[in-house]
Amino acid sequence: MAHVLRRNATAHVVEGDIVVWDILKEAGWPIYPLLLASVIAVALIIERLMVLRKSRIIPDKLLGEVLALYKNNQITPDIITRIEGNSPLGRVLAAGLRTPDIWSEGTTKVGTREMGDAVVAAITGKTITTKS
């Protein structure tokens, strides 16, 4: 069959009429699941590009505005709530603003992994369990 497919494809090239449908018909039924998987993959790529735009994850002026508010001691619970609803970065910043005394005496130092797990749990609503 591969020889027939090659000969037919060559004949199409010589004639100048390459028709995708003819190639798909010659390949037989195994090509259809591959074609379907390719269409689904392209759809997922387009969807992820739209959803994960940098402007939605990290808004341009958010960090500057939060830093200005923090330097001027204008952080209130209402402002933290608005920051949290802004974007995924806003949720991370809001979590940090809610715990300004995390390194004060008497508190437990938290490792990077534990803090990351806490942020992921806060964003996704799922508890992360890690082996120690």
Q: Which short descriptors sum up this protein?
A:
elongated, mainly alpha, 132 residues, single chain
Explain briefly what this protein structure is:
This protein has two domains: 2-52, no CATH class; 56-124, no CATH class. The chain is mostly helical and 132 residues long. It has eight helices and no strands.
Structure description:
- Helix content is 67%, strand content 0%.
- With 132 residues, the chain is an all-alpha fold.
- It folds into 2 domains: 2-52, no CATH class; 56-124, no CATH class.
- Helix 6 (77-84) packs antiparallel against helix 7.
- The chain is elongated.
- It starts with a helix and ends in an 8-residue tail after the last helix.
- The model has no long low-confidence stretch (mean pLDDT 77).
